[in-house]
Amino acid sequence: MNKKSIIENIRNKSGFICDMDGVIYHGDKILDGVKEFVSWLKKENKKFVFLTNSSERTIKELQGKLSRMGIDVGPEHFYTSALATASFLQSQKPNGTAYIIGEAGLINALYNIGYTSNNIDPDYVVMGEARSYSYEVIEKAVNLVNNGARLVGSNPDLTGPIENGIAPATKALISPIELATGKQAYFVGKPNPLMMRIALKRLGIQREETIIIGDRMDTDIVAGIEAEIDTCLVLSGISTKETIREFAYSPHYVLQGVNEIVKDFNK
């Protein structure tokens, strides 16, 4: 299939599930063509949601970050692994307690569903991206898990893209706790089908009308394939063309970035 046909197929979709890191921005740097892409989504009345595996920021913070980059979208267009983790815990044990290792996005999401912080005998040890990560935190978490707390990770990402390279993400940070306790964490974020089902519900359309755009083969693309949603891998984040060959599955489409979706092929 030639590039023009690929772009036409993508443009014909009614719903867009877009990852953020590596698709919309790197760190605090917006990627090429993103403003035009979001303007096109609005102008064409497409349904879209920014679905991020990062649990670090609240919806308000994500809105503010995009606003500073010149992109204004409402809170209904965002969903994070922190919110999905809170939803999962609420369904498992309403009004429970947790030892939370993470930033504002995860902490607020759990507090908003009635969870309280507990570093003595919590129901769960919950981890997301954490800048306050330390040996003392690992030691505390290990002993809480050994004493019966269940271990939950907001996402299974090993790394995330930043302006000058990559940063360790939740799975990398939670691994020492898994290794020391012999317990496996349950990860809520992509590619967990929970995230895909929530995204489709938010869009209110069928999976056949939808495409997921992401930069990771191991979360975004496999999530789409397992949910039977068309997938588009963009090479503006973690993955390269060589990365694709490392996996048994392939994305439906590969683009350099979302800027190609709004490129005028008639010029």
TrEMBL record:
A GO molecular-function annotation: metal ion binding
Coiled-coil boundaries: none
Source taxon at top rank: Bacteria
A GO-annotated cellular component: cytoplasm
Residues at which substrate binds: 190
Gene3D superfamilies named among the record's database cross-references: HAD superfamily/HAD-like
Matches recorded under SUPFAM superfamilies: HAD-like
CDD domains listed in its UniProt record: HAD_Pase_UmpH-like
Active site (record annotation): 19 (nucleophile), 21 (proton donor)
Similarity field: Belongs to the HAD-like hydrolase superfamily.
PANTHER family: 4-NITROPHENYLPHOSPHATASE-RELATED, HALOACID DEHALOGENASE-LIKE HYDROLASE DOMAIN-CONTAINING PROTEIN 2
Protein name: HAD family hydrolase
Species: Mariniphaga sediminis
Lineage: Bacteria, Pseudomonadati, Bacteroidota, Bacteroidia, Marinilabiliales
